[in-house]
């Protein structure tokens, strides 16, 4: 991107990531950690590979989240707890 070199890595953050301690200035996770049976291990690995003073961006789905509501509505009525039927696709 932008002419900068890069590479993709595939790893399991529930186990030891293939990076040295204090490697990254920023770690980004969007809608992934809450699917793990061991989110505490992932948090520990993020802490390990993040540089001191580094930053971390995370997004976790929650039942009160508009993202969750959009995905779980049946859109036919309010019986399923959907309070935002206008957001659902017909």
**Quaternary class:** single chain
Strand order of the largest sheet: 1-2
Run of helices and strands: EHEH
| Shape label | globular
Helix content: 10-25%
Number of domains: 2
Averaged pLDDT, please?
78
Tell me the number of helical segments per DSSP (H or I, 4 or more residues long): 2
Backbone CA Rg: 18 Å
Write a concise synopsis of the structure shown.
This protein has 90 residues and is an alpha+beta fold. The protein has two domains: 21-59, no CATH class; 63-90, no CATH class. It has helices spanning 39-49, 66-72; strands at residues 24-30, 50-59.
Any overview of this molecule?
The protein folds into two domains: 21-59, no CATH class; 63-90, no CATH class. The chain has a two-stranded parallel ribbon. Helix content is 20%, strand content 19%. Mean pLDDT is 78; it is low at 76-80. The protein has 90 residues and is an alpha+beta fold. The protein has two helices and two strands.
Helix and strand layout, with pairings?
Layout: E1 24-30, H1 39-49, E2 50-59, H2 66-72
Parallel strand pairs: 1-2
Keywords:
single chain; 90 residues; alpha+beta; two-stranded parallel ribbon; 2 helices; 2 strands; 19% strand
């Amino acid at each position: 991107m932008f002419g900068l070199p890069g590479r993709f890595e595939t790893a399991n953050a529930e186990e030891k990531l293939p990076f040295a301690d204090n490697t990254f200035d920023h770690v980004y996770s969007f809608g992934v950690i809450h699917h793990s049976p061991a989110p505490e291990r992932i948090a520990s690995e993020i802490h390990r590979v993040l540089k001191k003073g580094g930053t971390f961006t995370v997004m976790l789905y929650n039942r009160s989240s508009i993202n969750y509501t959009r995905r779980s509505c049946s859109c036919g009525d309010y019986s399923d707890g959907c309070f935002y039927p206008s957001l659902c696709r017909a």
